[in-house]
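## retry 2 of 3
previous attempt timed out at serialization; input unchanged, resubmitting
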Amino acid sequence: MMRPSASKEDVLAVVILILVIGSVILAVIDQSTRPAFADLTKVTLGAYIGLLIPNKNRENDNS
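## retry succeeded, writing output
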């Protein structure tokens, strides 16, 4: 049986999840760098959400 390959969105979701969990762990370990890891998590989640939102201009270009 062939296993279906993971889509780009699935791979991106796993990478984002690992990044966010890693940032939280590092923020717990070193309290003095908490704001930096919070900002990193915000930027990462914002980029992920931005990639998930369909871009109307991009859809029109592909037609």
